[in-house]
Every structure is written in C-alpha cells, then in structure tokens.
Amino acid sequence: LWNQSRNRWADYLSYYELKESQLPEIVPTGTVAGKLKTEFIQGNLTAETTLVTGSFDHPAAARAVNVLTPGNMLLSCGTSWWDFIR
Q1: What is the tens place of the pLDDT at every residue in 3-49?
Q2: Planar angle of CA 63, 66, 68, nearest 5 degrees
Q3: Pick from 31, 30, 86, 81: which is nearest to 58 by CA?
Q4: Which candidate, 7, 13, 31, 72, has a CA 20 to 30 Å from the CA of 42?
Q5: Which is it for the CA torsion 26, 51, 30, 60, positive or negative?
Q6: Which DSSP letter does residue 12 get?
Q7: pLDDT tens-digit profile of 44-86?
Q8: Chain CA centroid to CA 65, Å
Q9: Is 62 within 8 Å of 68 (Cβ atoms)?
C-alpha cells in the first residue's frame, strides 16, 4: 500500500475503501519504535529489548549496498527476483 518511489500512500487506497487515517504512520527504517511489552519478555528478550522499524528485504538490500543514485544496479534473488537500476 506504500508507494516507495513517491514516499506516500498508494493512489489505490480508495479501491480497498481505506483511508490514510486508518493506516500506521510510516517512519524511516531504523527508527526506534519502543521497548518490548512485559507479556513478551522471555528467554534472551528483556524489558530493555528495543524495537526498531524494518524494511522489505529488497529495498533494504539496495540501501545496504548503496544503490541510491543513478548508474547503480542491484540484482537480488531469493523467493522472487528483483533488480534495482537507477
């Protein structure tokens, strides 16, 4: 539902009868979201466990290898094939 190229919600939300106000706030990857709730503390997880926002794997891989500017390319394969060419 998120248009990564335009950095906003996709234009087709109304098709699904969704409003932006019903959706979560989108924040940059790596943003601290909070601490672990008490009911989930077990094993190596403690009250100090920090929750951090993530990303879809292919865009994260592109950022990780600095495919951010025109002239760069990343070919990524797994359960699906993607290429990022800028």
Answers
A1: 877 888 999 999 999 999 999 888 888 899 999 999 999 999 999 99
A2: 80
A3: 81
A4: 31
A5: negative
A6: G
A7: 999 999 999 988 777 777 878 888 777 887 777 766 666 666 5
A8: 16
A9: yes
**61 and 74 Cβ atoms separated by less than 8 Å:** yes
Helix (H) or strand (E) holding 80: none
Whose tokens are 């359960």? That residue is 79
Stretch (H or E) spanning 62: helix 57-64
CA 61, CA 5: separation in Å to the nearest integer? 16
Residues 6+ apart with CB under 8 A from 74: 61, 62, 65, 67, 82, 83, 84
Q: How many residues does the chain have?
A: 86
What is the amino acid identity at position 44?
Answer: N
